[in-house]
Design goal:
By secondary structure, this protein is of the alpha+beta class. Helix content is 42%, strand content 19%. The strands form five sheets. A six-stranded antiparallel sheet has the order 1-2-3-4-6-5, with helices on one face. A hairpin with a 5-residue loop joins strand 15 and strand 16.
């Protein structure tokens, strides 16, 4: 069918090429003749066109998607039938799905993955507020445009409400979703599937982006689904050591197997990621909508090693400061003891002076002879000299 429709005119649209396969049909790139713009067309396979139930569900998907006017959801523009070929027209997204992005680039950086998940949660929260549960959230159903905008598509498995009545785009009781990302309650084929199923699948998708592959990827579809029911998700930090603790805690909260213990509302996930990214949420502007000021109040999430380097740098600076302070203190102590002797040093110097004084008193005076030789002075001679000195002082 992919090649049979290439070049076909369906109403106002010329089919160009196949670009993907969704839950309820094949997606083509096409050109709208009247408005001269690229579009995407989803076509119901011919083998299902005669099945009234499939046709009804296919057109129901078109109506469900047409009610979702949100920047993070692929917009449905038109729907119709031409020569017994049922189709609906969507905006053309120039980019790649997240599955392709991870296959080409490997696992994503934590900050980039958080930004993508933030946009996805906004779109899903709006869909939930309109009564639509996606039920097949996975990387292949999330588009990343060349302008870095995130778009959610493929509502082929969606469950929505019309006038309060649940309407599924699949048969009741069927186990729906993709095995690698499906929630435990969908595997058990419960009828009351709600927003918490999308929250679990979102967590598995987030894990895929950070791990670089699905958490459960080995074995048959039945084995993988059994692991969703019983096995713990392999620890992400063993595959990616740069993940912060806050992100690991978020992943754990998203993928709790018991939905009663899981995060209950997609808008709560949006708020959590917003806080992690530092976005300031100003006010709610409607169901599932919020006005977001994209001001980063905090820096990007820091991993363990970045934090360790920062702490080490601060410790190094503190050690240097302490060493400089000690060096200054020692220098001042040495200078003070050199120029300002202590009491103990003063007593020691005084004792040395007293010891030297008697020896000076006991040393007899000397006289100098004509030959220049110093000889001890005689007592009489000392007396005469003393008398002469006194007379000189008196006469002056």
């Amino acid at each position: 069918m992919d090649h049979l429709l290439t070049g076909t005119i369906l109403g106002d649209y010329e089919v160009k090429e196949s670009i993907g396969c969704g839950g309820m049909g094949v997606v083509y790139r096409a050109h709208q003749l009247s408005l001269d713009r690229p579009v995407a067309i989803k076509v119901l396979p011919p083998e299902f066109c005669t099945d009234h139930d499939y046709v009804s569900r296919f057109m129901r998907e078109a109506r469900a998607a047409a009610n979702l006017n949100h920047p993070n959801i692929i917009q449905v523009l038109d729907a119709g039938v031409s020569e017994n070929i049922y189709f609906f027209v969507m905006e053309y997204v120039d980019g790649k799905n997240l599955g392709q992005v991870v296959r080409e680039r490997g696992r994503l950086k934590e900050y980039e993955a958080l930004c993508i998940m933030y946009e996805v949660t906004r779109g899903l929260a709006f869909a939930h507020s309109m009564g639509i549960i996606h039920r097949d959230v996975k990387p292949e159903n999330i588009m990343l445009t060349n302008r870095r905008t995130v778009k959610i598509g493929d509502l082929g498995l969606a469950k929505w409400k019309l006038r309060g009545v649940d309407l599924a785009l699949t048969s009741d009781g069927a186990s729906m979703g993709t095995p690698r990302y499906v929630s435990p309650e969908q595997i058990r084929a419960l009828k009351d599937i709600d927003a918490r199923a999308d929250i679990y699948s979102l967590g598995m998708t987030f894990d895929h982006l950070l791990r670089g592959r699905p958490a459960f990827c080995d074995g048959t579809d039945a084995e993988i689904m059994a692991r969703h029911l019983s096995d713990e998700i392999p620890p992400l930090h063993l595959f990616n050591s740069e993940i912060t603790l806050s992100t690991l805690e978020l992943l754990t909260a998203l993928t709790v197997k018991d939905r009663e213990s899981r995060i209950q509302e997609m808008s709560d996930v949006t708020d959590m990621i917003s806080q992690m990214l530092g976005f300031q949420q100003e006010e709610r502007t409607g169901p599932g909508r919020s006005s977001i000021r994209r001001t980063r109040a905090t820096a990007k999430p820091q991993n363990f090693w970045s934090r360790l380097r920062k702490v080490s740098r601060r410790v190094f600076i503190d050690v240097i400061a302490v060493m400089v302070g000690l060096a200054v203190a020692v220098g001042l102590w040495m200078v003070s003891h050199q120029y300002w002797p202590t009491e103990k040093q003063k007593h020691s110097q005084a004792a040395q002076s007293e010891e030297s004084a008697p020896s000076a008193q006991n040393t007899p005076p000397t006289t100098t002879t004509d030959s220049g030789t110093a000889t001890p002075a005689m007592p009489s001679q000392q007396n005469e000299e003393s008398a002469f000195a006194r007379r000189r002082m008196l006469w002056g």
